[in-house]
Here is the input.
Amino acid sequence: MRIPRPLLGLLASAVLTTVLPSAAAAQCPAVPTGDPATSPVRLLADACAKANDAFRLVAPQVGVLMAGGNPSPSIGGTLGGFPHFNVGVRLNALQGVLPRLDQANPGLGFAGAQASNIPVSDVVILMPQVDAQVGLFKGFKLGLPIPFLGITNMFGVDALLSASFMPSASARAGGNGISLDGGQLAIGYGARVGIFEESLLAPGLAVSYMLRPTPEVSLEASRGSDTLAARRFKVNTGSLRVTASKTIPIIGLGLSAGIGQDVVDGDAALAVSVAPTAPLPTARVRSEYRTSLASVSRRNVFVGASFKILIVRLAAEVGYVSGGTNPTLVNAFLDGGDVARPMDRRRYATIAARIGL
Here is the structure.
């Protein structure tokens, strides 16, 4: 039996305002054998499954948005040791999807966790970041009788820092829909080891690793007074990169490219608040529980270009991520005639500006 009004909220912390005990730190509730057909547990099991699936669809996208491509756009090698540094701002943009739980078909019901078809809305999600790199070690001077290398430094080391801010994104109409709410800062850090420092002849080539936690965000879906939300929603992204760059002398045009791997995991406090109609006699049920996304690995490929104007270097980059094992979902997310999955290929773009010594 189904509630006449579809649930449509999704994710986040939960509290039971009626006869149900708190379920904090628990996974989606199981429906006990012999449980009454109108038991609130059945309702919560379905709401939890939809919230959990929505979190697993969105979390990998946030990971892509955090990582982007090059940890310092347009720089493929190291800086040349102390006191060299770079400071820049960048804006990452991801072509993503948000699940419209308010349009789930069928909506929330008393059959326990049941499969529904849930449409998604295509959205562009943005994340501004401030990056800084400081040269720690110049490396060892290398002079080889190889025309395209000449004299350069090898095995230099840079420290990498970033600060990220998560703006909001939404897909709503008439008060119903879903929103991703940000508003906090998070700090990332890492290191880069140069294979070659860029010189007049030699390209820059380096390996780097950065750990970027997301700012805490909330994912909330609603229809009327019904809501599902994911509060304290955090995603951690570890990014391994191999980058290369070369600036063309005289014209100052820089070209860069890279490949790498992102490892993403996350967790959230999920909550549901529902005011069902008959036959459930309770005015409203709420419950809280935790969920998590197990670590998944994704491939990342990107290319970029840059140009210097006075002391500022402007850069742009495009890339995509792919691969990874899709988690098992109860529900299906539909993007037109296609099924949207957590590990779908995602495209992103970055624009950046930096100054340095």
